[in-house]
Specification:
This protein is α+β, with helices and mostly antiparallel strands. Helix content is 17%, strand content 26%.
Length: 175
C-alpha cells in the first residue's frame, strides 16, 4: 500500500475519519499541532497495529557490508522489521486502513525527514482503503519481518551500526 503521485498516506485502525484536524499527540515530541502522513518511502514503517513497538533497519549509502550481513542477514534483502512475539497475533488480526491525502500542504519533518505534516485540516481524497494482511504486505515488499522475545538487544545493535533505522512505539516494548 503506497500513495499515488501527488498523494501521501495516513494509516489508521479507524475507518470512520472524515477530516483530519491538526492536533498534538500525547506522545509527540512536537508542540505544534499537525496532521501526520507519510510518502511512499516511509509507508512500510506503518504496516503495523498502531501501538505495536517496532525496530526497523535498512541499508543506506553509508551502510557497511559487515553491518548489513550481521544485522539484516546474508541473502535477506536490504530491510528488516522486528516486532516482539506478543505482537504477532495483533499483527495477524488488526484491520488497518490507508487514507489517501493530497500531498499539497504537507511539508517534510525531521532530519532526515521521516514523515510529512500539515498545519491545516485535511479532507481525504476518498474513503479509507483496507490495507489487508500486514504480514503479506511485508512479504510482497521484500521486507524481512523478524519476531523477537524483546526488541531491546536488537535495537542496541541497530543504533550502533551503520544501518539507517527507525524505532516506533519503543516505549511499548518489553523490558
Amino acid at each position: 500500500m503506497r500513495p499515488d503521485p501527488g498523494e501521501v498516506l495516513h494509516f489508521s485502525e479507524d475507518p470512520t475519519i472524515e477530516r483530519f484536524v491538526p492536533h498534538v499527540a500525547p506522545t509527540s515530541r512536537q508542540s505544534e499541532p499537525y496532521v501526520w502522513a507519510v510518502g511512499a518511502d516511509r509507508c512500510p514503517d506503518y504496516w503495523f497495529p498502531r501501538a505495536c513497538p517496532r525496530a526497523l533497519a535498512w541499508t543506506g549509502p553509508g551502510t557497511t557490508a559487515e553491518d548489513a550481513v550481521r544485522i539484516i542477514g546474508a541473502g535477506c534483502g536490504d530491510r528488516v522489521h522486528a516486532i516482539e512475539y506478543g505482537w504477532l497475533r495483533p499483527m495477524l488480526e488488526t484491520r488497518l486502513y490507508a487514507y489517501r491525502l493530497p500531498a499539497d500542504g504537507f511539508a517534510p519533518i525531521g532530519d532526515p525527514p521521516h514523515a510529512v505534516v500539515s498545519t491545516a485540516p485535511v479532507t481525504p481524497l476518498g474513503p479509507p482503503e483496507p490495507v489487508g494482511d500486514l504480514v503479506e504486505l511485508h512479504e510482497r515488499a521484500g521486507i524481512q519481518l523478524r519476531l523477537l522475545d524483546s526488541l531491546w538487544p536488537f535495537w542496541e545493535e541497530v543504533i550502533g551500526s551503520s544501518l539507517e533505522f527507525s524505532g516506533i512505539r519503543m516505549r511499548n516494548a518489553r523490558r
